[in-house]
């Protein structure tokens, strides 16, 4: 990693928040943001102490804020005790919000089930009492393999209530991925369902659990609790399997929350696998919850009466922090959705926003790009055909959002009224890190803007030295923060080597390339592993992709480098058009148009040498483009890497053909 990453992305549009919004905001105006930031800078531990005392309910107060004696194995609020589920549920009942709706669940079929905080607490307590009776206790590990449902939230919260460390595995993963995670976390419990509904179809889940448990090193699993969702025949192992309804039958609605040490692990969650084999990220109890709650308050400017909707599955970190923990801790009413954005048609998200009067909508660029494509093909599913007047704030997470998609989202969904919070963060960071505050930060399409108060993000070179604004480099966080990863589960060395390599002076290395502009705004340029080196210029993937996506024919694009005799590396672009995939002379003609377009938008150096068209791109099941596989395909080699988290393996064949 020698020279720095360069940027040729020019994006000058600025969208300040309107005065009305600023007046009523939680963090009102840039001065308020700067004051908070400065408070953290001037008195780092004092700042976090204040936040932890104001936002969390403690069983035993902490006396020490940060213990860095074994850095990078940091401890936060280490001698304090609390219970996460108490902070998400009991707190609201005790403080008089028990009858407020906590969750509005909408099934794939459109059936709506609301649950209040009081009811949710009773359900969590019954399930937790069942777990207690079955002998599960603090420190045990459980795999949760459930569809998006109230039950998924209940299962996670019940584990948190007893100190059982959960690891949620996304319902789309195979028996093999499930098996790897069961073994890696040493699970003694699996919580699953017979099946799930997606896009009008009933898909089985339990058979993958049976397959996984038939494989070696799974003898520790004593119980499999099965929630009945789809009905129908499933195979059954007597003595091990038990229906959810039988499991909680007769249990009391009251369950004393277990006092947990701040640093006791709350969960383990595997990363998406965009850049390599997934890592088992271990999170803490107090620090994690504090940041989940605080970021909901700041980034989403929570207000009484808000209806929050994060579309992420609980199988991802976004679904942990912004479905199961943050919104509940913050006392919000939220929508939980079982289905997919395209069923019964691609207007589903917009229709649901109208139905539930959603005020805060948080989704991923991959969903936005696919809904742009769908709504340009069919006006009936265009956001204009729905009532989106309840929206106040819209957000994006998971990948860089291309400026073109940002502007579409801003105009068509936010109606030029709702700020977009483009939130940069990772499984490892626990919560949002670099993001606009909706009532403060002037927005620039494609930039995640500025770090949150208490987060000391920076861009450095390969020696850990700060680079000047306008120069690309490695995105790092210089000081620890409460919600940071505590370890790669059971692998101290991988934790240190991945996130705190010695050249970086003890800073947290995020693995993304980025730069800051003259205003100090952060622009994520892509993964460090994906950086292109063309004729000695190091280019981020993000800008070439954004240039392609800004062409009227293009829905999505992924760009990688391939070794090249003359330029060192050549740009290879994989492109999905808004229309069907072109062939023959037509493909050649469009490829030429796109090449000329990139040359005009960025410059000749970024011009793709090779353009390939596909119906889709290889993505993780969380919807992120897997460029590491495209690099192999671009070279014409066989893919031998870990593809366990790849959503659509068949697409790789299509992309081997050059135009
Ligand atoms: P793995 O670590 O296994 O390769 P992953 O990095 O995709 O998987 P996640 O933790 O889900 O797993 O994703 C975090 C990454 O997503 C970030 O490092 C960044 O590359 C990208 N990302 C998330 N949000 C944004 C955003 N708002 N803007 C730009 N990039 C983002
Ligand atoms: Mg990552």
Automatic annotation (TrEMBL):
Residues 33-88 form the Acetyl-coenzyme A synthetase N-terminal domain. Residues 543-624 form the AMP-binding enzyme C-terminal domain. Its EC number is 6.2.1.1. Coiled coil: none annotated. It catalyses: acetate + ATP + CoA = acetyl-CoA + AMP + diphosphate. PROSITE patterns: AMP_BINDING. ATP binds at residues 398-400, 422-427, 512, 527, 538. GO terms for cellular component: cytosol. The keyword Nucleotide-binding applies. Residues 93-481 form the AMP-dependent synthetase/ligase domain. Acetylated. Deacetylation by the SIR2-homolog deacetylase activates the enzyme. GO terms for biological process: acetyl-CoA biosynthetic process from acetate. It comes from the Bacteria. Keywords: Acetylation, ATP-binding, Ligase, Magnesium, Metal-binding, Nucleotide-binding. GO terms for molecular function: acetate-CoA ligase activity; AMP binding; ATP binding; metal ion binding. InterPro entries: Ac_CoA_lig, ACAS_N, AMP-bd_C, AMP-bd_C_sf, AMP-binding_CS, AMP-dep_synth/lig_dom, ANL_N_sf. It is an enzyme of class 6 (ligase). Its cofactor is Mg(2+). Mg(2+) binds at residues 549, 551, 554. The modification N6-acetyllysine is found at residue 624. Catalyzes the conversion of acetate into acetyl-CoA (AcCoA), an essential intermediate at the junction of anabolic and catabolic pathways. AcsA undergoes a two-step reaction. In the first half reaction, AcsA combines acetate with ATP to form acetyl-adenylate (AcAMP) intermediate. In the second half reaction, it can then transfer the acetyl group from AcAMP to the sulfhydryl group of CoA, forming the product AcCoA. Belongs to the ATP-dependent AMP-binding enzyme family. NCBIfam families: Ac_CoA_lig_AcsA, PRK00174.1. This is Acetyl-coenzyme A synthetase. It comes from Advenella mimigardefordensis (strain DSM 17166 / LMG 22922 / DPN7).
């Amino acid at each position: 990693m020698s020279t720095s990453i360069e940027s040729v992305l020019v994006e000058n549009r600025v969208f300040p928040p309107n005065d009305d919004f600023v007046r009523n905001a939680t963090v009102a105006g840039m001065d308020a943001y700067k004051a908070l930031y400065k408070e953290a800078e001037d008195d780092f531990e004092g700042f976090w102490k204040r936040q932890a005392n104001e936002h969390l309910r403690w069983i035993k107060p902490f006396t020490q804020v940060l213990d860095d004696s074994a850095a990078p194995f940091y401890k936060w609020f280490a001698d304090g005790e609390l219970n996460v589920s108490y902070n998400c549920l009991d707190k609201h009942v005790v403080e008089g919000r028990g009858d407020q709706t906590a969750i509005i669940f909408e099934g794939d079929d459109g059936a709506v089930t609301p649950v209040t905080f009081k009811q949710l607490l009773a359900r969590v307590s019954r399930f937790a009492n069942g777990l207690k009776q079955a002998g599960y206790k603090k420190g045990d590990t459980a795999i949760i393999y459930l569809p998006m449902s109230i039950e998924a939230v209940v299962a996670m919260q019940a584990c948190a209530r007893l100190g059982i460390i959960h690891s949620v595995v996304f319902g789309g993963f195979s028996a093999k991925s499930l098996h790897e995670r069961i073994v890696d976390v040493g699970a003694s419990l699996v919580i699953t369902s017979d099946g799930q509904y997606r896009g009008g179809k009933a898909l089985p889940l339990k058979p993958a659990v049976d397959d996984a448990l038939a494989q070696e090193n799974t003898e520790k699993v004593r119980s499999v609790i099965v929630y009945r969702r789809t009905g129908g025949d499933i195979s059954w192992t007597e003595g091990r399997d038990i229906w959810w309804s039988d499991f909680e039958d007769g249990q009391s609605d009251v369950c004393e929350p277990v006092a947990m040490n701040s640093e006791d692990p709350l969960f383990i969650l595997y990363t998406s696998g965009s850049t390599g084999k997934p890592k088992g990220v271990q999170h803490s109890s107090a620090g994690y919850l504090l940041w989940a709650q605080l970021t909901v308050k700041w980034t989403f400017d929570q207000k009484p009466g808000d209806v929050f909707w994060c579309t992420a599955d609980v199988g991802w970190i976004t679904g942990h922090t912004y479905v199961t923990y943050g919104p509940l801790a913050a006392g919000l009413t939220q929508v939980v959705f079982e289905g997919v954005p395209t069923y019964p048609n691609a207007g589903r998200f917009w229709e649901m926003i109208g139905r539930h009067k959603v005020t805060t909508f948080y989704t991923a660029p991959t969903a936005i790009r696919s809904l742009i494509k769908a709504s340009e093909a069919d006006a009936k599913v265009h956001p204009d055909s729905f009532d989106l007047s309840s929206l106040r704030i819209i957000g994006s997470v998971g990948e860089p959002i291309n400026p073109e998609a940002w502007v579409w989202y801003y105009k068509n969904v936010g109606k030029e009224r709702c700020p977009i919070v483009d939130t940069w963060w990772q499984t490892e960071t626990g919560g949002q890190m670099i993001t606009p505050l909706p009532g403060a930060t002037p927005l620039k399409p494609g930039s995640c803007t500025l770090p949150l108060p208490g987060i000391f993000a920076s861009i450095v070179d390969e020696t850990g030295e700060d680079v000047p604004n306008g120069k690309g480099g490695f995105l790092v966080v210089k000081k620890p923060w409460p919600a940071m990863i505590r370890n790669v589960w059971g692998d101290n060395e991988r934790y240190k080597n991945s996130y705190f390599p010695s050249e970086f002076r003890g800073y947290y290395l995020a693995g993304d390339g980025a730069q800051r502009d003259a205003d100090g705004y952060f622009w994520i340029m892509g993964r460090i592993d994906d950086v292109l080196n063309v004729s000695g210029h190091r280019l981020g993937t993000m800008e070439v992709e954004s240039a392609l996506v800004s062409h009227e024919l293009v829905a999505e694009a992924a760009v990688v480098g391939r070794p090249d005799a003359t330029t060192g590396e050549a740009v290879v672009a994989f492109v999905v058009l808004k229309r069907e995939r072109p062939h023959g002379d037509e493909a050649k003609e469009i490829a030429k148009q796109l090449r000329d377009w990139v040359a005009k938008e960025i410059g000749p150096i970024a011009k793709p040498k090779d353009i390939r068209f596909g119906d889709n791109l290889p993505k993780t099941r969380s919807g992120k483009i897997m460029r590491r596989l495209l690099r192999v395909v671009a070279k014409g080699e066989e893919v031998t890497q870990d593809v366990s988290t790849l959503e659509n393996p068949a697409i790789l064949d299509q992309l081997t053909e050059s135009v």
